[in-house]
Design brief:
Layout lengths: L3 E4 L8 H5 L7 H15 L5 E4 L8 H10 L3 E5 L9 H6 L4 E3 L3 E3 L3 E4 L12 E4 L12 E3 L10 E2 H13 L1
Parallel strand pairs: 1-2, 2-3, 3-4, 6-7, 7-8
Antiparallel strand pairs: 1-9, 5-6
């Protein structure tokens, strides 16, 4: 049985993100290696991963190497740092699907790179990236940025259970 995972904002190859976000890595090479290991420690080859943007700052060849090293069927929702390269560039880099726009998953989860406007009457939870170590208040937002989750993708079940617990609390 395959599982569904979510993650965002690895910024592979982006040396400055280590300082910007106080990431616990001594070098960009260590950061990239650890994030690949953590991805593959939870994602199997038959699983699907929704990547919610800002994947890589590397060239096509190096980005393709990373994408091919990662387990799973990979769907990219373009982030602000991905859009300049265009949809076809990311498909050529090895993503199985690429969306320029947010996606609704399971009629309840609104998947986007940047947090989207959500009022308390909307029936969705916005699973998003972009804001790194910051958090939006309210039960309608779930920040999937790697800084919050030990640089590891989260499963659909983990997010669903987290949302249910917080709605009850």
């Amino acid at each position: 049985m395959s599982n569904i995972f979510f993650t965002s904002d690895q910024h592979f190859g982006h040396k400055l993100i280590i300082d910007f976000e106080s990431r616990p890595f001594g070098s960009v090479e260590e950061m990239d290696r650890v994030m690949i290991e953590k991805w593959n420690s939870v994602v199997g080859t038959e699983d699907t991963v929704f990547h919610l943007g800002d994947f890589s700052f590397l060239n096509l060849e190096k980005t393709r190497e990373i994408v091919s090293a990662l387990n799973g069927y990979k769907i990219l929702i373009l982030g602000n740092h991905d859009r300049s390269r265009g949809r076809n560039w990311w498909l050529e880099a090895g993503f199985n699907e690429v969306s320029e726009y947010p996606v609704i998953y399971k009629d309840f989860f609104f998947l986007s790179h940047e947090p989207m406007y959500m009022n308390k009457h909307m029936p969705y939870v916005n699973v998003h990236g972009h804001i790194h170590s910051q958090k939006y208040e309210g039960k309608n937002y779930f920040n999937i940025c790697v800084e919050h989750w030990d640089y590891t993708p989260l499963s659909f079940a983990q997010i669903r259970d987290y949302v249910v617990v917080n709605e009850e609390g």
